[in-house]
Structures are given as C-alpha cells and as structure tokens.
Amino acid sequence: MIRPEYLQTFFIPKKPGKTLPKHDWSKPFAILTAYNPGGRKQDTKANEESSKKLRQALSRKFLPKHRVTAVSEDWSHEEKSFAVWELTHAAAAQIGRDFGQDAYFWVENNSVTVCSCISGKTKSVGRWKDRLRSRVIPFPIRIYVLELRREVLKDRSFLKQNPKCAGDAGLGCLYVGSAADVEKRVRIHQRGPGPGDNPRVRGSTLVKKYLLKRRDDLESPDIYTTSGHATLAEALEAEFLRDQGYRVYSN
User: Fold this and answer.
1) pLDDT by residue, tens only, the chain of 251 residues
2) Angle at CA 36, nearest 5°, toward 21 and 11?
C-alpha cells in the first residue's frame, strides 16, 4: 500500500562523523524503516526497539547503511530510517515485509520513488535534492489568528471552550491555529485538501462556516521549530486573547 502521506515525505541524513564510513550517494539506495509496523502507531520505546532490530538485521547482511530520518511536510511526524546500498528492489521489499512495512523509498538518478512492499506498485515523490531537509533549517511554524462571524456563538464546540460568554461576542470571536504555511492552511480550512496536499490534513468546520478574515494584527511574530513547541504556544496565545476579552477557539 502506498499511503498518500508517503508522497509528502522529506529526509534528514545523519551528518557523517569521523567513525562513519563515507557512502556514494550517487549510487541507487533504498530507505527502510521499522517504525509503526502495519500502519499502527507504536510508542517511542517500541519503535526504537524495532529500529534496533532492523539495524542489526542489516548489519548481519553486511549491507552499507546510513541513518536517515524521514519527516512529514509539517515536521509533526518523524521516523528513524536507514539508507541502504547494494539492494535489489526485491530484497528491499522483503526486508520491508519482514518488519511489517507497507512501502519503502528508492533513490536513483536524483529521483525518489515510493514502492509498495506488497504489490510492487510505485509512485514518484520528487527529486532527492528537493526532499532533503536539515535540523538547522526546519519548517518554521507560526501561530495564526482568524476572526469568525459572531454566529459561531451558537456552535456547541465553540461554546464548550467559551462557556461563560452567554452569547456575548466580547471583542470578537477568534480561531487560533499554527502552521508552517498559513495561507495554505487557511485554504484547506475553507476548501479542503487540494492536489499535492496531504489528504489526511483536514480543515476546521468552524473556519469553513464562519470565517470572516485573518487577524494578523493579533499574531505574534515568533516562529517555532517543532510542532510540540507550536502547540504549546498556540494554547498560550488562545488564553492570552481570552484574557484580553476575545472569545477564542483553538485545537
């Protein structure tokens, strides 16, 4: 199975150290992981153990390998993986199946392809050099603020986060969120994911129904390098705006 989110994957190769052998990245290689077998999310400890077993299996086969971290487009999901040389497609698919994986990535001639471990079907992901990312320059995540029409005060989910407003809009009704690409995120809120977007990233029904305008005058200029930091900042921003007299909804 080739899940849609696989097509939105980026890669962070581990920086070579003095003890790490230098590999020829111009030669074909597979990218394999053991995280979340069968598409079922495991906790960190279980994933680390699975990754350790994959590393040991590759070492027993004397296959050249290099640590690579696969990350989602918004930096919210990571999977420790290995770039592995001297494999055929059949061998890469078998290792993937051994570790419960739906697919693996194949890099050749600067092109990244995702390949099903079961059916052998493939889909192009893009150019290798365009899919590379660095820990030093991650996706900057920003907090954004949207003003909603006062009709949102009749919505149960909005009232649940603003139980004391009693139909009073105060200084205004707001939605607070975070995103690496705010304009794209607002578009998804309004119209849903489009071509090239991750279909699993859904928009907010509240924004779709009640959006009035963006309130960049209320937005902080700060940027965040992890989704965890951004989520915390989003919650703090929502509380700050409530204290100022706004009615605020935040995920």
Assistant:
1) 788 888 889 999 988 766 666 788 889 999 999 999 988 888 889 999 999 999 999 999 999 999 999 998 777 788 999 999 999 999 999 999 999 999 999 999 999 999 999 999 999 999 998 899 876 545 688 999 999 999 999 999 999 999 988 889 999 999 999 998 899 999 999 998 888 777 778 899 999 999 999 999 999 888 887 777 788 889 989 999 999 999 999 98
2) 40
Based on the domain organization, do 32 and 66 belong to the same domain? yes
- 15 and 126 both lie in a single domain: yes
Whether pTM exceeds 0.85: no
Q: Are residues 126 and 145 in the same domain?
A: no
Question: Is 136 part of a structural domain of the chain?
Answer: no
Pair type for strands 173-179 and 247-250: parallel
Q: Which domain, by its residues, includes 28?
A: 4-130
Q: Is residue 193 part of a domain?
A: yes
Residues in contact with 74: Cβ distance below 8 Å, sequence separation at least 6, in sequence order: 139, 141, 179, 180, 201, 227
Total domains in the chain come to 2
